[in-house]
Design a protein that fits this description.
The chain is mainly alpha-helical. The chain contains 3 helices and no strands. The chain has a domain at about 5-80. Helices cover about 85% and strands about 0% of the residues. The N and C termini lie far apart (about 145 Å).
Amino acid sequence: MTHEEEEEMKHDMSKLRYQVQQISLSQKVTKSKINGFIYRMEAKIDGIEEKFKGNMEDLKKYREGLFEGWTKLLQERLPNDEKLVEETHDENKRNVNHDFIEYNVGLKTHHIPMDFLS
C-alpha cells in the first residue's frame, strides 16, 4: 500500500469514527428526550389519577346526600309502615271480594235446557 493510499484510508477511518460519534450523540439526545417525555407523561397521569380519585370521593358524597334527601322525602310523604301495610291489605281484600262477586253474579247454569229449544 502506498503512502497516499494509507493516508486516504486513515482519513476515511477518521470520517467514519466522527460519523459513529455523531450517531451515538444523536441517540443519547433522543434517548434523553424520550426519557423526559416519559417522565412528564407519568407526572400528568399521576395528576389525572389524583384528580379522578378526588372526583370519585366528591361523587360518593353527593350520592350519599341524594340518598339521604330521598329517604327524608319519602319518610315525609309516605304514611308509616303499619298504615301502608293495612291499606294494602284492605285494598287486596276489596279486590278479592269484588272479583268473587263478579264471578258469582249472573246465570248459575251454564247449559241451556232442551225443552226451551223446542
